[in-house]
Design goal:
The chain is built from 9 helices and 10 strands. By secondary structure, it is an alpha/beta fold. Helix 3 (65-78) links the parallel strand 2 and strand 3. The protein starts with a helix and ends with a helix.
Length: 296
Protein backbone atom coordinates (compact mmCIF):
# COMPACT_ATOMS: atom_id res chain seq x y z
CA UNK A 1 0.00 0.00 0.00
CA UNK A 2 1.48 3.34 -1.04
CA UNK A 3 2.05 5.68 1.92
CA UNK A 4 -0.13 8.33 0.25
CA UNK A 5 -2.97 5.79 0.13
CA UNK A 6 -2.53 5.30 3.86
CA UNK A 7 -2.60 9.04 4.59
CA UNK A 8 -5.61 9.49 2.30
CA UNK A 9 -7.53 6.65 3.97
CA UNK A 10 -6.82 8.08 7.44
CA UNK A 11 -8.00 11.56 6.41
CA UNK A 12 -11.20 10.20 4.82
CA UNK A 13 -11.89 8.16 7.96
CA UNK A 14 -11.50 11.29 10.11
CA UNK A 15 -13.81 13.33 7.85
CA UNK A 16 -16.46 10.62 8.09
CA UNK A 17 -16.03 10.50 11.87
CA UNK A 18 -16.75 14.23 11.97
CA UNK A 19 -19.89 13.73 9.89
CA UNK A 20 -21.02 10.93 12.20
CA UNK A 21 -20.22 12.51 15.57
CA UNK A 22 -21.20 16.16 15.15
CA UNK A 23 -24.46 17.93 14.34
CA UNK A 24 -23.12 21.11 12.69
CA UNK A 25 -19.57 20.77 11.41
CA UNK A 26 -17.83 23.17 9.02
CA UNK A 27 -14.68 23.05 6.90
CA UNK A 28 -12.50 26.12 7.34
CA UNK A 29 -11.20 27.14 3.93
CA UNK A 30 -8.33 29.58 3.43
CA UNK A 31 -7.72 29.05 -0.28
CA UNK A 32 -4.34 27.52 0.54
CA UNK A 33 -3.03 24.15 -0.61
CA UNK A 34 -3.91 22.34 2.63
CA UNK A 35 -7.57 23.40 2.69
CA UNK A 36 -7.82 22.72 -1.05
CA UNK A 37 -6.49 19.23 -0.36
CA UNK A 38 -9.16 18.83 2.34
CA UNK A 39 -11.87 19.72 -0.19
CA UNK A 40 -10.47 17.07 -2.54
CA UNK A 41 -10.51 14.52 0.30
CA UNK A 42 -14.07 15.51 1.21
CA UNK A 43 -15.13 14.81 -2.36
CA UNK A 44 -13.65 11.33 -2.04
CA UNK A 45 -15.32 10.84 1.34
CA UNK A 46 -18.86 11.98 0.45
CA UNK A 47 -19.45 12.06 -3.29
CA UNK A 48 -21.79 11.54 -5.07
CA UNK A 49 -23.65 13.16 -2.16
CA UNK A 50 -23.28 16.73 -0.93
CA UNK A 51 -20.77 17.63 1.76
CA UNK A 52 -22.30 17.31 5.27
CA UNK A 53 -20.82 20.72 6.08
CA UNK A 54 -20.36 24.16 4.49
CA UNK A 55 -17.02 25.74 3.70
CA UNK A 56 -16.16 28.75 5.90
CA UNK A 57 -13.67 31.45 4.92
CA UNK A 58 -12.55 34.18 7.31
CA UNK A 59 -11.75 37.08 5.00
CA UNK A 60 -9.27 39.62 6.36
CA UNK A 61 -9.77 41.91 3.39
CA UNK A 62 -6.01 41.69 2.84
CA UNK A 63 -5.97 38.44 0.90
CA UNK A 64 -4.04 37.70 -2.24
CA UNK A 65 -6.43 38.43 -5.15
CA UNK A 66 -5.40 35.14 -6.77
CA UNK A 67 -6.63 33.27 -3.70
CA UNK A 68 -10.08 34.86 -3.70
CA UNK A 69 -10.46 34.27 -7.44
CA UNK A 70 -9.53 30.62 -6.96
CA UNK A 71 -11.89 30.26 -3.98
CA UNK A 72 -14.87 31.54 -5.94
CA UNK A 73 -14.04 29.37 -8.94
CA UNK A 74 -13.71 26.27 -6.75
CA UNK A 75 -17.03 26.89 -5.00
CA UNK A 76 -18.77 27.27 -8.35
CA UNK A 77 -17.14 24.06 -9.57
CA UNK A 78 -18.05 21.85 -6.58
CA UNK A 79 -21.46 23.40 -5.94
CA UNK A 80 -21.10 23.55 -2.16
CA UNK A 81 -22.12 26.25 0.31
CA UNK A 82 -19.61 28.95 1.26
CA UNK A 83 -19.95 31.11 4.38
CA UNK A 84 -17.66 34.15 4.62
CA UNK A 85 -16.87 35.99 7.84
CA UNK A 86 -15.39 39.44 7.30
CA UNK A 87 -12.75 40.92 9.61
CA UNK A 88 -13.85 44.35 8.39
CA UNK A 89 -17.24 43.72 10.03
CA UNK A 90 -15.51 43.03 13.35
CA UNK A 91 -13.57 46.28 12.97
CA UNK A 92 -16.71 48.26 12.09
CA UNK A 93 -18.54 46.79 15.10
CA UNK A 94 -15.74 47.85 17.43
CA UNK A 95 -14.95 44.27 18.46
CA UNK A 96 -11.33 44.57 17.34
CA UNK A 97 -8.98 47.49 16.79
CA UNK A 98 -6.92 47.57 13.63
CA UNK A 99 -3.19 47.71 14.20
CA UNK A 100 -1.24 50.81 13.25
CA UNK A 101 2.30 51.27 12.02
CA UNK A 102 4.48 49.95 9.27
CA UNK A 103 4.12 46.26 10.15
CA UNK A 104 0.40 46.37 10.95
CA UNK A 105 -1.53 43.20 10.10
CA UNK A 106 -5.09 41.96 10.38
CA UNK A 107 -3.99 38.37 10.82
CA UNK A 108 -4.48 38.22 14.59
CA UNK A 109 -7.87 39.94 14.29
CA UNK A 110 -9.35 36.96 12.46
CA UNK A 111 -9.69 35.06 15.74
CA UNK A 112 -12.58 37.26 16.87
CA UNK A 113 -14.28 37.00 13.47
CA UNK A 114 -13.84 33.22 13.48
CA UNK A 115 -15.30 32.81 16.97
CA UNK A 116 -18.24 35.06 16.07
CA UNK A 117 -18.86 33.04 12.90
CA UNK A 118 -18.75 29.76 14.86
CA UNK A 119 -21.20 31.16 17.42
CA UNK A 120 -23.54 32.69 14.84
CA UNK A 121 -23.93 29.42 12.92
CA UNK A 122 -23.70 27.10 15.91
CA UNK A 123 -20.81 25.03 14.55
CA UNK A 124 -19.75 22.28 16.94
CA UNK A 125 -16.75 21.12 14.90
CA UNK A 126 -14.44 23.00 12.55
CA UNK A 127 -12.22 21.05 10.16
CA UNK A 128 -8.88 22.61 9.26
CA UNK A 129 -5.75 21.84 7.30
CA UNK A 130 -3.16 22.37 10.04
CA UNK A 131 -0.34 19.82 10.16
CA UNK A 132 2.00 18.84 12.98
CA UNK A 133 5.15 19.49 10.94
CA UNK A 134 4.29 23.16 10.41
CA UNK A 135 5.06 24.57 13.84
CA UNK A 136 5.84 23.35 17.35
CA UNK A 137 2.52 24.48 18.84
CA UNK A 138 0.64 22.56 16.16
CA UNK A 139 2.80 19.51 16.90
CA UNK A 140 1.27 19.44 20.41
CA UNK A 141 -2.29 19.29 19.19
CA UNK A 142 -4.49 16.21 18.82
CA UNK A 143 -6.52 15.44 15.68
CA UNK A 144 -9.72 16.14 17.66
CA UNK A 145 -8.82 19.27 19.64
CA UNK A 146 -11.43 20.55 22.10
CA UNK A 147 -12.04 24.28 22.56
CA UNK A 148 -13.89 25.65 25.58
CA UNK A 149 -16.99 27.86 25.51
CA UNK A 150 -14.72 30.86 24.85
CA UNK A 151 -13.08 29.17 21.87
CA UNK A 152 -9.82 28.76 23.77
CA UNK A 153 -7.38 25.86 23.58
CA UNK A 154 -5.69 24.40 26.63
CA UNK A 155 -2.63 22.35 25.61
CA UNK A 156 -2.83 20.45 28.92
CA UNK A 157 -6.47 19.46 28.36
CA UNK A 158 -6.20 17.01 25.50
CA UNK A 159 -7.71 13.59 24.98
CA UNK A 160 -5.84 10.39 24.18
CA UNK A 161 -6.36 9.09 20.64
CA UNK A 162 -5.22 5.48 20.96
CA UNK A 163 -5.99 3.08 18.11
CA UNK A 164 -7.44 5.96 16.03
CA UNK A 165 -10.43 6.28 18.33
CA UNK A 166 -11.59 9.90 18.39
CA UNK A 167 -13.75 11.26 21.20
CA UNK A 168 -15.95 14.10 19.97
CA UNK A 169 -18.09 14.43 23.11
CA UNK A 170 -18.38 18.08 24.13
CA UNK A 171 -20.38 20.18 26.57
CA UNK A 172 -22.77 22.92 25.54
CA UNK A 173 -20.90 25.89 24.07
CA UNK A 174 -17.70 23.94 23.37
CA UNK A 175 -16.50 23.01 19.91
CA UNK A 176 -13.83 20.79 18.41
CA UNK A 177 -11.16 21.67 15.87
CA UNK A 178 -10.40 18.68 13.65
CA UNK A 179 -7.20 18.17 11.65
CA UNK A 180 -7.54 15.29 9.15
CA UNK A 181 -4.09 15.84 7.61
CA UNK A 182 -2.32 16.43 10.91
CA UNK A 183 0.06 13.52 10.24
CA UNK A 184 1.01 14.74 6.75
CA UNK A 185 4.15 16.72 5.97
CA UNK A 186 4.50 19.57 3.49
CA UNK A 187 6.18 17.14 1.10
CA UNK A 188 3.32 14.62 1.54
CA UNK A 189 0.82 17.31 0.56
CA UNK A 190 2.74 18.23 -2.58
CA UNK A 191 3.23 14.60 -3.60
CA UNK A 192 -0.51 14.05 -3.12
CA UNK A 193 -1.35 17.16 -5.14
CA UNK A 194 0.86 15.85 -7.91
CA UNK A 195 -0.67 12.36 -7.83
CA UNK A 196 -4.26 13.61 -7.71
CA UNK A 197 -3.64 16.49 -10.15
CA UNK A 198 -5.24 19.02 -7.78
CA UNK A 199 -5.49 22.59 -9.11
CA UNK A 200 -3.99 25.39 -6.99
CA UNK A 201 -3.85 29.21 -7.02
CA UNK A 202 -1.15 30.52 -9.33
CA UNK A 203 0.84 32.12 -6.48
CA UNK A 204 2.14 28.68 -5.45
CA UNK A 205 4.13 28.60 -8.67
CA UNK A 206 7.00 30.87 -9.67
CA UNK A 207 5.90 34.16 -11.21
CA UNK A 208 7.17 37.71 -11.66
CA UNK A 209 5.98 40.01 -8.89
CA UNK A 210 6.78 43.38 -7.36
CA UNK A 211 8.15 42.82 -3.86
CA UNK A 212 9.82 44.71 -1.05
CA UNK A 213 12.31 43.35 1.46
CA UNK A 214 11.05 43.81 5.00
CA UNK A 215 12.58 42.23 8.11
CA UNK A 216 14.67 40.07 5.83
CA UNK A 217 11.62 38.66 4.01
CA UNK A 218 10.25 39.24 0.50
CA UNK A 219 6.76 40.72 0.83
CA UNK A 220 4.35 41.31 -2.04
CA UNK A 221 4.17 45.04 -2.73
CA UNK A 222 0.60 45.93 -1.72
CA UNK A 223 -0.96 49.05 -0.25
CA UNK A 224 -1.78 47.05 2.92
CA UNK A 225 1.93 46.97 3.76
CA UNK A 226 2.07 50.72 4.39
CA UNK A 227 4.90 51.17 1.89
CA UNK A 228 6.96 54.30 2.46
CA UNK A 229 10.05 56.01 1.02
CA UNK A 230 12.39 53.56 2.79
CA UNK A 231 10.92 50.58 0.95
CA UNK A 232 12.52 49.65 -2.36
CA UNK A 233 10.16 47.95 -4.79
CA UNK A 234 11.82 45.30 -6.95
CA UNK A 235 10.51 42.85 -9.50
CA UNK A 236 11.55 39.28 -8.76
CA UNK A 237 10.74 35.72 -9.68
CA UNK A 238 9.04 34.34 -6.56
CA UNK A 239 6.45 31.91 -5.29
CA UNK A 240 4.63 31.38 -1.99
CA UNK A 241 4.96 28.22 0.10
CA UNK A 242 2.03 29.13 2.31
CA UNK A 243 -0.96 31.42 1.76
CA UNK A 244 -2.28 33.82 4.36
CA UNK A 245 -2.84 37.52 4.86
CA UNK A 246 -0.66 39.56 2.44
CA UNK A 247 0.76 41.56 5.33
CA UNK A 248 2.31 38.53 7.04
CA UNK A 249 3.02 36.03 4.24
CA UNK A 250 6.43 36.24 2.62
CA UNK A 251 7.51 34.90 -0.75
CA UNK A 252 10.62 32.89 -1.56
CA UNK A 253 13.00 33.34 -4.47
CA UNK A 254 12.07 30.59 -6.90
CA UNK A 255 12.03 29.53 -10.52
CA UNK A 256 9.81 26.50 -9.82
CA UNK A 257 6.95 26.56 -12.32
CA UNK A 258 6.15 22.82 -12.26
CA UNK A 259 5.16 20.46 -9.45
CA UNK A 260 8.35 18.43 -9.79
CA UNK A 261 10.39 21.62 -9.40
CA UNK A 262 8.48 22.59 -6.24
CA UNK A 263 8.93 19.11 -4.75
CA UNK A 264 12.67 19.29 -5.46
CA UNK A 265 12.83 22.72 -3.78
CA UNK A 266 11.07 21.44 -0.66
CA UNK A 267 13.37 18.43 -0.40
CA UNK A 268 16.38 20.74 -0.47
CA UNK A 269 14.95 23.38 1.90
CA UNK A 270 16.26 23.72 5.46
CA UNK A 271 13.47 26.15 6.49
CA UNK A 272 9.88 25.13 7.19
CA UNK A 273 7.07 26.72 5.22
CA UNK A 274 6.01 28.66 8.33
CA UNK A 275 9.44 30.29 8.20
CA UNK A 276 7.88 32.65 5.66
CA UNK A 277 5.10 33.74 8.02
CA UNK A 278 5.87 37.02 9.79
CA UNK A 279 3.12 36.43 12.37
CA UNK A 280 5.06 33.46 13.78
CA UNK A 281 8.10 35.65 14.48
CA UNK A 282 6.46 37.95 17.03
CA UNK A 283 7.71 35.71 19.85
CA UNK A 284 8.95 32.17 20.47
CA UNK A 285 5.44 31.12 21.48
CA UNK A 286 3.48 33.32 19.04
CA UNK A 287 1.46 30.49 17.49
CA UNK A 288 0.67 28.83 20.82
CA UNK A 289 -0.55 32.09 22.33
CA UNK A 290 -2.82 32.72 19.33
CA UNK A 291 -4.18 29.17 19.52
CA UNK A 292 -4.98 29.58 23.22
CA UNK A 293 -7.09 32.61 22.26
CA UNK A 294 -9.01 30.70 19.59
CA UNK A 295 -6.85 31.03 16.49
CA UNK A 296 -7.06 28.05 14.18
Amino acid sequence: MDYLDHLEAEAIYILREVAGQFEKPALLFSGGKDSITLVHLAKKAFRPGKFPFPLVHIDTGHNFPETITFRDSLIEDIGEKLIVGYVQDSIDQGKVVEQKGKNASRNALQTVTLLDTISKHGFDACIGGARRDEEKARAKERIFSVRDEFGQWDPKRQRPELWSIFNGKINKGENVRVFPISNWTELDVWNYIKREQIALPSIYFSHEREVITRNGQLMAAASFLNIDADDVIERKSVRFRTVGDMTCTAAVDSTATELDDIIAEIKASTVSERGARMDDKVSEAAMEERKKQGYF
